[in-house]
Design goal:
heterotrimer; A alpha/beta (420); B alpha/beta (446); C alpha/beta (423); A: 420 residues; Rossmann fold; seven-stranded mixed sheet; 13 helices; disordered N terminus; C: 423 residues; alpha/beta; FAD/NAD(P)-binding domain; Enolase-like, domain 1; 3 domains; five-stranded antiparallel sheet; 29% strand; globular
């Protein structure tokens, strides 16, 4: 597995951080603790359970000062946090698959109320056919609900991104909830060497808490929160449309904020992650493959091998999936001639992977700008915990390379694990 | 100033024993001559007993006709005071009073009238049958009148609805340091949360999901507790959201003993959205989803209203062993206020649940001036029972009805039961008895 | 010129109730009370007790200055209404000033009617209608040894009793054949008479005074009273209590447009024949309960009721109800006994009178029924609730089902009906 750390730490890097060996769920829990939320609400679900167990233990051991609410279900978990946030609390939870589905109603509402709640999705496939194994189907299914969604590649990135997520969510120009997605099984249980940032440094990085300046349930500044809106109040622009446009603006603002926060993180902690779109060996690439999450490690290994074999291929990894980083992606796509997109979930409507489907939108923009019609193929793999190996990626690379030679784009996705 | 305590007489409970008159004569004249009592029981066992007693009128004619300024209403106590030094014994006051409330005491040759014994009437404590009661409901009016009404004026409830009364009273009592949750239903429907950028209250208010009132409030309350601020978390919710789709989250919050005051306004259905059935809708009731027709409905049973009995949500809450659980009715405001006070206190320690029965003029189909009467009939027939539960004291009836009216007295007061067959009525009457016995057993267990 | 929205003339029960009724509906419309009396409001009914000394003059006031301040009422004392100019909505006062009003209430009450007896102008005599009259009579009474009271109405009887108790030798001269004529019947009057004679008073009923002359038989100015029979009486104190007449002299000139009979004629809402002018109390002549005839019913409870209706009418209070018509009601306390009369003393055609008299106890009851309904009830030493009896009459309640019970125990039986009917 290659490292995501693209540059050496600057000379002003802080004192050496403590090095520990933890699974991804524990890394997330440690990140949460460092971000100092006031309130955590939990309900266990595989493969998230050990994450909330770690949080509970940190609180029980006095290593984390937060109110923990053991709610009776995910619906209440998110509801409790909404109440807490409206009272000014920094809040956190984690879920996946069925739990995410069950909390859908408050989930939708969290973004509408612009509450900067951070929630890890320890991604899980399903819901039916039943599976407790990893896959992006849960997070992908709710991608149209107005949360910022970022995907991690490594255990270290899980820890670092969890902290950054609070800062992004609470940014004045964003004020939106953030999902930190970590792949079930691969990242949740995968154990790795991790550098643990210093609490004082994290405190300095986080700055002031900024949760409910815009909407609050506070007797000192009473307001009606989320009253009914009509289509038009007859007094200027529709209240509803005004709120919706505001959400969209917050999403767009988050692209810049995500970049800024990642930059600040890199300067302070010495670990630099591509905030939106990462180009791997794309300098002179003729074609590329696109990945998301933990699969990217194997993908990069396969690229290295293909490069060694003389193929001018690179890898484009999305970290930020929602909002979709169109402009950043177009920059990565503009010099290549063919693209293979690997999804870990299914887009039922278009018979392809969701990331592929979203990328088609970016390709249209690219075509508008350059007149280029970039051929692209959808690959679906890693469902229900299946591994996507370098061998699978070589199939992806070869099939994408074939597009260069004039092969037609298939309207059928390539199912990578179909015969595994 | 405003309302006053008063002595109430329930003729149905009086057997003419005369203990009240003896007590009055003893207290006021030092004799046991009942003719000298300032309250006089008239009538007989056959036709019933009646009462002559000063009503302490708000517009007292005895005072207006007194030429000597010897009578005057005390606006602190409400009592019409008689000043013997000024009185000239002209008896004109007995001309003014149409209620025989002031009369000649022949033994002293002077008029005499009830002075309420400085607030603890001897007659009331002497009555062995509860026929005389000191009604202290005025306390509510007088105290509440001084509290700030924290709702905006002019909520848009249906004509004759008692929920606005309930909401205003409740929020006044709970006070301004409150966060109020009003989940979808009649309460926000009448404008408590406001519309399009306006607000309906002077306290922070929100419109939670139908499903998550309790946990959202729990989050609010928990954070204020964490940062050391005293804030009351109050829900005023409907029965549908609480007993049906929001039940899980309600139960969870109760189990966690969240410090919330959760009030359910039970109008026995989804009345705000067009009178659909909820699990609190009683057996036989017409609703727009349990209509009356010629065919068959739920379970293949004839379509003659709801075919299942109501879920008893407050009893379920008792089984959460909450800090406090009580049922109440707007027809018994004193009882309601007593419970509200206890519930507020309990909500500082944990989960407090108040279930208030709220007849719906629109959905239950009765005239808009009959709301209190329907609410009262529900209690008088034991269709609704008023009780409270605490962990220490268990369950206890606060207003036991020992000789209930037949349930038909309640059923016939409204249109939603108009279609009931004899069989259905006997089912309901049987259920009333069964429910009563069940709650009595729980009460005995305490 | 001073202006006021409401001008209330007079300061006794009718006027005071009008103030309350106006303020119930109109909390800040300008309101002025005008009275010829120099004192704060008091009731003429209390005056016999001021005479007797039972009530100190400074304790009888029904309202204090604070009342007027609290209700923003301008009180002008000691100034009489001189003339009413209804066409201009203006009142002209005795001091020459004028007040323009929107609505005016004439609650000016009555004054003693002085009979045109030869010589009356030359003698010193007392009347009793004002607090100053009462104070003067109280002082004179203490020195009186030999007093004559002309008129055996309730004012005269009260004063006579006081004089008796003060130790004077008292003679009561009454033109009618009985005492308290018009208030109580002959049987009751006989009981009253006996109480007086037992206490040393002399009662001369059916006697007319034909001449009065100053008497020098006493240290203070006295009077020699000559009766129709030729007999003479010497009095060191003469009280003229031969009735009252309504105060309405100010209705001259333009004011004469206000229709009058014995008093100022008013309708069911106390309105006079002239717009914006109302009248109530002892100066008003209003509908009787028993017929459509307008009568003088100068009793305190009626004055209060009329004043209230007038106030509501003036303020436009929509809660107003028509005046049901007055019924006579009197209570009279004498030598520790009491007499109560409620309703008409006339027996209507087809009516029935039932009396019960127990000479030993002096308890007397007289009940008048018409078609099973009560029209009047009288009692001496037989207490019943006059207010409840009034309601039985006003509500025309059929008593035939409980007739025997009613006659046996009128108070108890009336209270039972009250409980069932309007309590």
């Amino acid at each position: 597995m290659s490292t995501s750390t693209l540059e050496k730490p600057p000379s002003s890097a802080p004192a050496k951080q403590k090095v520990i060996l933890v699974e991804g769920n524990e890394a997330a829990a440690l990140g949460v603790a460092l971000a100092r939320p006031d309130m955590v609400a939990v309900y266990p679900i595989t493969p998230q359970s050990s994450l909330v167990e770690h949080v509970a233990k940190l609180i029980a051991d006095g290593k984390m000062d937060a109110d923990i609410v053991d709610a009776e279900g995910e619906h209440s978990v998110l509801s409790v946090l909404q109440g807490g946030a409206l009272a000014g609390a920094r809040t956190y939870t984690a879920t996946c698959g069925p739990g995410l589905a069950f909390m859908f109603e408050p989930y939708f509402r969290t973004s509408g109320m612009r509450l900067p709640i951070v929630m890890s999705i320890v991604t899980r496939d399903g819901i039916t056919p039943q599976s407790v194994w990893g896959g992006h189907q849960d997070a992908m299914t709710v991608r149209e609900v107005g949360w910022v969604q970022v995907y991690c590649e490594t255990v270290q990135e899980v820890l670092d991104t969890t902290i950054m997520a609070f800062k992004i969510a609470e940014h004045h120009d964003v004020m939106l909830p953030v999902n930190v997605c970590l792949d079930g099984n691969y990242l949740s249980y995968g154990t790795s060497r991790v550098e643990l940032p210093d609490q004082a440094e994290v405190d300095a990085f986080m700055g002031d808490k900024n949760v409910n300046w815009h909407v609050a349930l506070d007797p000192l500044r009473p307001m009606a929160v989320d009253p009914l809106t009509g289509g038009s109040s007859g007094k200027g622009p529709s209240t509803f449309v005004r709120y919706r446009k505001g959400q969209c603006k917050g999403m767009q603002n988050s692209l810049r904020v995500i970049e800024d926060v990642h930059e600040e993180w890199a300067v302070r902690f010495g670990r630099r992650y591509a905030p939106l779109v990462e180009d791997y060996r794309m300098e002179d690439a003729e074609f590329a493959i696109m990945t998301l999450g933990s699969m990217s490690g194997a993908g990069k290994d396969a690229i290295d091998e293909a490069r060694d074999a003389g193929k001018r291929v690179g890898l484009i990894k999305l970290k930020t999936f929602s909002p979709f980083p169109v402009e950043a992606l177009i920059k990565s796509l503009k010099n290549i001639q063919a693209l293979g997109v690997v999804d870990r979930s299914v887009g039922f409507r278009w018979n392809c992977g969701p990331m592929y489907q979203e990328t088609l939108g970016a390709l249209y923009r690219l075509g508008q700008a350059t007149g280029k019609m970039l051929p692209a193929q959808s690959f679906i793999g890693g469902l229900a915990g299946a591994d996507i190996t370098t061998a699978h990626f070589h199939r992806v690379i070869d099939a994408t390379e074939a597009l260069l030679g004039g092969a037609t784009m298939s309207t059928e996705p390539v199912w990578l694990n179909e015969k595994d | 100033m405003g309302a006053f305590n008063t002595i109430a007489f329930d003729a149905n409970k009086c057997d003419g024993c005369g203990d009240c008159m003896t007590a009055c004569a003893t207290a006021k004249t030092g004799t046991t001559e009942i003719s000298r009592s300032r309250l006089q029981i008239a009538g007989n066992a056959a036709e019933g007993f009646e009462l002559a007693l000063c009503r302490q009128c708000g517009d007292p004619k005895c005072v207006t006709v007194c030429p000597a300024g010897a009578l005057g209403k005390d606006y602190a106590s409400g009592v019409i005071d008689w000043n013997g030094d000024k009185c000239v014994d002209c008896l004109l006051c007995t001309v003014g009073c149409a209620y025989a409330g002031i009369a000649l005491d022949e033994a002293s040759g002077r008029v005499a009238k009830c002075d309420m014994c400085d607030g603890s009437p001897a007659c009331v404590s002497a009555c062995p049958h509860d026929a005389l009661k000191l009604v202290t409901t005025s306390r509510i009016y007088n105290e509440v009148g001084d509290w700030e009404d924290l709702f905006a004026p002019g909520l848009a409830g249906c004509q004759g609805c008692n929920t606005e009364l309930l909401m205003r009273h409740t929020l006044r009592r709970v006070g301004p340091d409150t966060v109020l949750a009003t989940p979808p239903g009649c309460v926000p429907g009448m404008g408590s949360v406001g519309f399009n950028g306006t607000t309906g209250t002077k306290v922070p208010v929100f419109h939670p999901l139908l499903t998550n009132t309790a946990p959202m409030l729990a989050g609010v309350k928990r954070h204020y507790k964490r940062i050391g601020r005293e804030v009351t978390a109050l829900a005023i919710a409907g029965d549908g959201g609480a007993s049906d789709v929001g039940f899980q989250s309600l139960s969870g919050a109760a189990e966690r003993n969240e410090q919330i005051l959760f009030m359910v306004v039970d109008n026995e259905g989804y009345m705000n959205t067009g009178m659909q059935r909820s699990s609190c809708t009683p057996y036989g009731a017409w609703t727009s989803t349990t209509p009356v027709g010629q065919g068959t409905g739920s379970g293949g049973l004839p379509s003659q209203g709801k075919t299942q009995d109501a879920k008893n949500l407050p009893l379920i809450m008792v089984n959460h062993r909450c800090e406090y659980v009580a049922t109440a009715s707007t027809a018994y405001m004193e009882d309601l206020y007593d419970k509200l006070d206890k519930a507020i206190a309990a909500s500082k320690r944990g989960f407090a649940y108040l279930h208030v029965y709220s007849p719906c003029t629109t959905g239950w189909r009765f005239p808009t001036d009959q709301n209190m009467e329907v609410a009262r009939k529900a209690v008088e027939t034991n269709f609704v029972m008023l009780w409270e539960y605490t962990r220490a004291g268990g369950l206890r009836f606060t207003r036991p009805v020992d000789e209930p009216l037949p349930v038909t007295d309640y059923l016939k007061a409204m249109g939603r039961f108009r279609h009931l067959s004899e069989d259905q009525i006997s089912h309901i009457q049987g259920k009333v008895v069964e429910n009563l016995n069940f709650v009595k057993q729980m009460a005995h267990r305490a | 010129m001073e202006t006021t929205k409401y001008l209330v003339v007079g300061s006794s029960h009718a006027a005071l109730e009008a103030l309350t009724a106006i303020r119930m509906h109109d909390t800040d419309g300008s309101l002025t009370m005008l009275t010829r009396d120099a004192h704060l409001p008091y009731s003429p009914t209390v005056l016999p007790y001021v005479v007797s000394g039972r009530s100190a003059p400074d304790t009888v006031f029904l309202r204090d200055e604070k009342f007027f301040a609290r209700h923003q009422i301008s009180l002008r004392r000691g100034t009489a209404l001189k003339a009413l100019h209804p066409a201009r909505n203006t009142a002209e006062l005795a001091d020459g000033s004028q007040i323009a009003y929107e609505k005016i209430l004439l609650a000016t009450g009555a004054s003693p009617a002085i009979p045109p007896i030869p010589g009356i102008a030359q003698v010193s005599y007392h009347v009793l209608r004002t607090l100053d009259d009462a104070t003067k009579l109280n002082a004179a009474m203490k020195a009186s040894k030999q007093a004559v009271v002309m008129g055996a109405g309730l004012v005269g009887m009260h004063a006579a009793e006081n004089l008796v108790k003060a130790g004077a030798k008292v003679t009561i001269v009454e033109m009618a054949k009985q005492l308290t004529d018009g208030y109580f019947d002959a049987t009751a009057a006989a009981l009253i008479e006996k109480a007086f004679t037992d206490n040393g008073a002399t009662i001369l009923t059916g006697s007319r005074v034909v001449k009065l002359a100053p008497s020098s038989a006493f240290a203070t100015p006295g009077a020699t009273i000559t009766l129709e029979s030729g007999a003479t009486l010497e009095a060191d104190l003469l009280l003229v209590a031969t009735g009252v007449r309504p105060n309405m002299d100010f209705l001259t000139g333009e004011g004469a447009a206000v229709e009058r009979d014995k008093g100022i004629l008013v309708g069911e809402r106390m309105q006079t024949s002239v717009p914006n002018v109302f009248a109530a109390g002892d100066c008003a002549q209003a509908k009787s309960f028993y017929s459509d005839t307008k009568v003088m019913n100068a009793i305190l409870p009626d004055a209060a009721e009329q004043g209230r209706i007038a106030g509501m009418a003036m303020a436009g209070d929509p809660g107003i109800k028509d005046y049901p018509g007055g019924i006579p009601v009197n209570t009279y306390h004498f030598f520790g006994r009491h007499a109560i009369s409620v309703g008409s003393s006339k027996v209507p055609e087809g009516g029935e009178v039932v009396t019960r008299f127990d000479e030993a106890s002096g308890r007397y009851l007289k009940v008048i029924f018409h078609e099973g309904r009560l029209t009047g009830i009288y009692g001496v030493n037989e207490f019943f609730d006059a207010g409840v009896m009034s309601q039985l009459i006003l509500r025309r309640i059929d008593l035939s089902p409980v007739r025997e019970h009613f006659l046996a125990e009128p108070m108890k039986s009336a209270r039972e009906i009250m409980s069932l009917t309007w309590r």
